[in-house]
Every structure is written in C-alpha cells, then in structure tokens.
C-alpha cells in the first residue's frame, strides 16, 4: 500500500518552502552587492546620472526606516523588523498555502527585510541609492523595492483569493437554489 501519512501530505502541500528561502537569499545577495558597490564607488562621488532627468544613483545613509521615517526610534524599529521577519519566515515555512503568488510575496518581503537589517546591524544605517528624482522624492534601495513589490503581490493575492471565494460562494448558492427549485417542481422527487 503506497499511501501518504498526514505529515507527508502536509509537507507536500507546503510546496518546498526551502526553495522560497533561496529566493529570499537571492534578494539579500543582490541587495548587499548593490550596496557594497555604492559604498565603494558612489560614496565619494555622491551622485551619478544614469538616465538624464529621470534616474540618478545618489549615495545616502538612512538612519531611519523606509523613506527616512522613525530616525529617532531606531532600536524600536529594529526590534519590530526582527519580529516581523521571523514571523513571516515561520509562516512561509509552516503555514502558507501552496500558492506561488503568496510565496513570492513572502520571499521578497523576507529578503528585503533581511537586506536592510544587515545594514542596520553592521553599519548603523541603511545605504540607499535609487533616486528616481523625476517622479519620486525619496531615495531607496533594492531591499526596499523587494519589500514594496512583495507587499503589492500580497495585496494582489488577497484580492484574487477574495474574488475566488466570492465566486465559490455564488456557485454554491446557485447549486443550492437549483436543488431547492428542482425539489419543489410538480412531479419532482421530494
């Protein structure tokens, strides 16, 4: 007999969560490499125009949270960030349903959070450098981008899940109505 145990079935349904931690690790590596390059080559220059009138690489040491907020409450933010990263990682590994959109969102959020946390712990600040000055007043980095894209994917996942749930409820109600109407027709089986 070749059945699966409940634990094996649950593990299979989680869909190789270690693969998604690799995605998080890749985000951390790309983020840290980009920050290292900025510190090595951009710090002394300050800013380099990449696309005139649109994109510059501008070296900035951000002592706060996203977009320079919470500058005076660094340790509170670091504790909150650490708890959030651990919670999201546990959720990804143990509880998240096997949905690629959901897993991409969680993996990117973890990677971005860890990337910025490495800077906060090792440097005391986060290196920001992406400066889309034509459309956005804030300077950010790859880790910030990962967190924002991950959050956007999470919102998209939630909307799609809600729509799917509503369609399933409508189908269930339609089936129940059909069964009820069939049973009430003259000559039908009651």
Folded structure, characterized:
With 190 residues, the chain is α+β, with helices and mostly antiparallel strands. The chain has helices at 6-14, 17-42, 74-95, 100-122, 142-184; strands spanning 47-51, 55-62, 126-131, 139-140. The protein has a four-stranded antiparallel sheet. Strand 3 (126-131) and strand 4 (139-140) form a beta hairpin. Helix 2 packs antiparallel against helix 3, helix 2 packs across helix 4 and helix 4 packs antiparallel against helix 5 (142-184). The longest helix has 43 residues, at 142-184. It is elongated. Residues 4-13 have low confidence and may be disordered.
- Measured between the Cα atoms of the first and last residue, the distance is 42 Å
Order of adjacent strands in the largest pleated sheet: 1-2-3-4
Helix content: 55-70%
Overall body shape: elongated
Q: Give a quick account of the main beta sheet: strands, pairing sense, barrel closure.
A: 4 strands, antiparallel
Low-confidence segments, given as residue ranges, are 4-13
State the order of secondary-structure elements, H for helix, E for strand: HHEEHHEEH
What does the oligomeric state look like here?
single chain
Arithmetic mean pLDDT: 84
SSE-based structural type: alpha+beta
Radius of gyration: 24 Å
How many H/I helices?
A: 5
Binned strand content: 5-15%
């Amino acid at each position: 007999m070749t059945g699966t145990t409940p634990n094996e079935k649950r593990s299979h349904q989680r869909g190789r969560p270690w693969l998604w931690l690799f995605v998080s690790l890749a985000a951390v590596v790309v983020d840290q490499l980009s920050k290292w390059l900025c510190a090595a080559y951009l710090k002394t220059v300050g800013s380099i125009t990449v696309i005139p009138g649109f994109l510059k690489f501008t070296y900035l040491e951000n002592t706060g949270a996203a977009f320079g907020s919470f500058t005076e409450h660094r340790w509170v933010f670091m504790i909150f960030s650490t708890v959030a990263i651990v919670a999201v990682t546990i959720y990804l590994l143990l509880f998240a349903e096997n949905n690629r959109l959901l897993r991409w969102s969680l993996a990117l959020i973890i990677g971005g959070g860890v990337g910025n946390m490495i800077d906060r712990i090792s440097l005391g600040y986060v290196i920001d450098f992406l400066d889309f000055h034509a459309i956005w007043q804030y300077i950010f980095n790859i880790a910030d981008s990962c967190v924002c894209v991950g959050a956007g994917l999470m919102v998209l996942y939630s909307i799609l899940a809600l729509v799917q749930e509503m369609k399933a409820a409508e189908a269930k109600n339609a089936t129940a109505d059909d069964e009820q109407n069939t049973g009430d027709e003259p000559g039908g089986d009651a």
